[in-house]
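Many introductory courses stop at the sequence. We go one step further.
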Amino acid sequence: MRDLYQRLSLTPGADDNAIGTALTQCQNSALRQDAQTVLTVPDRREKYDDLHATLSDIGRLRARLGLTHGAHWQGDVANDFSLPPDHAISRHDELVDRVSHAILLYNRWRRFRGPWLLVALLATAGSIGLAAGFALCMSLGTP
């Protein structure tokens, strides 16, 4: 489906006078006939506007995902609702990055947990042994 608004340099909210002016200035007879058939009849225009909004949303989604038509589709009717790729990071990619970072930190913690746990256990046992020895020496040294 071709984007009649784009091809006639109109916005989807254009009034009847703007559409009429664009139709009289249109050099392409097939485009003019299609636009006149669709945009000048209120019921057809309402249905076209609903479909136009849906296809525009799909075009924005495809751009957000980085999907575009190949070079052989450029300038074709199939490319009317395509937008250039949006290089902003998507919400899904952002969440995947955050989860990957959390997993990396967790794996680091697990890898170093064993040696540090052993060091903490030995330090605690040594401290308890020193305290017990000191207490024993104090109790034996006092009459």
